[in-house]
Hints:
Layout (H helix, E strand, L loop, with lengths): L1 H11 L1 E2 L6 E4 L5 E4 L1 H22 L5 H58 L5 H7 L16 H11 L23 H10 L3
Amino acid sequence: MADEQAKQVIENGQTSEQGGEVTANAGGAEKQTFSQDDVNRMIKARAEREIQALLRAKGLAGMDELEALVQAKNAAKEAEMSELQKAQERAAQLEKQLADAAEKQKALMTQSDITAKAAKLGIIDPDAAYKLLNRSELEYGDDGAPTNTETLLVALLKEKPYLAGGGASAMNPAKSSGNQKDPILTAARKAAGLS
């Protein structure tokens, strides 16, 4: 009965300027006064009825089912986002591994090129040439291979001629040619009975 009155008041009611009271004038028959709290309750009840009717029209039992659907949707969205984040992290890791592998390949290609060209130029220790060569001056082609290795090695030989093996030192004695006999070696052979 109160709902019917509230419905009638809301449809036919007028709000007075004083105190937010609503008065009903149904053809001047009876004057009824409602407080603002009464009006608020009536509006809330009507809104809840309309929401329930809308939910039933959409096939939902009530607000609880709607909230469950919203939570399920949010959970699925979070799971999807976490999968996306995992995929992005994995892609970043693979890109880093690829860059590291490319850098290692470039270093190996550089070392191989330097040692091959050092041997071609007659450098007796290609590994030493690799370590002594200023690799910051190397230039690389489109394929990643160094292009100016031989020029740098020739310059290194000019700076450090001992790499060519021509000079003699206490640690690197000159090799004797076949014509000259080493007197110490000859004496040792005689003592051993080999000559």
